[in-house]
Known about the structure:
The chain is an all-alpha fold. The two termini are 18 Å apart. The mean pLDDT is 94. The protein has 2 helices and no strands.
Amino acid sequence: MLIARWLMLLAGLGICVSVALYLWTGNPGYWRLARRLLTATAAAAILFFSVLMLERLAV
């Protein structure tokens, strides 16, 4: 659980840094990276919470 929290925190930090770099440089590669990170983080969060809910239902 602690590892998942740290990974989500690091992913959020990576998204913020990518958006900041995009705003600073105007390079669209940073924006694409931020979108990919956001998509992957959202998918991981949905999967994580769905596993938690399934565990609660099984008990």
